[in-house]
Amino acid sequence: MWEVIRRYCALYPKESELLFKKTAFLEHLKNPFPRALLPGHITASGIVIQHQEMLLIKHRYIGEWFQPGGHVDSEEEPLQAAIREVAEETGWQTTPSSFHDQTIPIDIDVHLIPANPKKNEQQHLHIDFAYLLEPIQLGIATDPEAVMWAKLTDCDAPRLARCVKKYITLTHP
Q1: Where are the beta strands (DSSP E) in 72-164?
Q2: Which residues on neighbouring strands pair with residue 130, listed in sequence order?
Q3: Whole-angstrom distance between the N-terminal and C-terminal Cα of the chain?
Q4: CA distances from 1 to 26, 32, 42, 56, 127 (A)
Q5: pLDDT at 118 (0 to 100)
Q6: pLDDT in tens, 87-140
Q7: Does the pLDDT value for residue 173 go beyond 80?
Q8: Which one, of 99, 108, 101, lies nearest residue 1 by Cα?
């Protein structure tokens, strides 16, 4: 996965210095996905855009609107995890976008997850690989969250706004 981070940083050099510092501990790991891995692990999410709207879920614990995503299962690549998580949480079947190289996330974000005594989890980092996905058809969510399609102009949370900017740059060069 370190090579994916390197390729991402080559595409988005303004983000590279800070991202390399925050993810340096991953460089020599063979498996950067286990939930118990400290100081953190790679997760995956889907940036699903259709008709100038982004698919969002209301996080059941945090109570804020985010792109759907979650942990990467064993024997799974982050892109596969993003597609699976979108389907589980929203019911939407998706495919990688033709606007972006599917082997590289459209965004990588490092954020702190607070300790959760109920799950016996320490504070840790999520290094979230967000992939640009296109919706195919709506099915039934197996782990449903509250879902909405938000206008791209309303996606003003810092990470969502960064993804919207990258999407616009890709689709309107």
Answers
A1: 92-96, 107-113, 124-138, 146-151
A2: 45, 107
A3: 28
A4: 8, 8, 9, 26, 11
A5: 86
A6: 999 999 999 999 889 999 999 999 999 898 988 889 999 999 999 999 999 999
A7: no
A8: 108
Q: What are the Cα distances from residue 11, in Å, to 8, 102, 106, 113, 142?
A: 5, 13, 9, 27, 35
Are the C-beta atoms of 42 and 1 separated by less than 8 Å? yes
Q: Any idea what DSSP says for residue 158?
A: H
| Cα distance between residue 156 and residue 173, in whole Å | 21
- Nearest residue to 121 via CA among 40, 46, 9, 51: 40
Segment 37-71, tens digit of pLDDT: 999 999 999 999 999 999 999 988 888 999 999 99
* 60-95 exposure pattern, b = at least 16 Cβ within 10 A, e = fewer: eeeeebbbbbbebeeeebbbebbbbbbbebbebebe
Q: What is the pTM of this model?
A: 0.95
pLDDT tens column, 28-45: 999 999 999 999 999 999
Nearest to 47 by CA among 114, 2, 108: 108
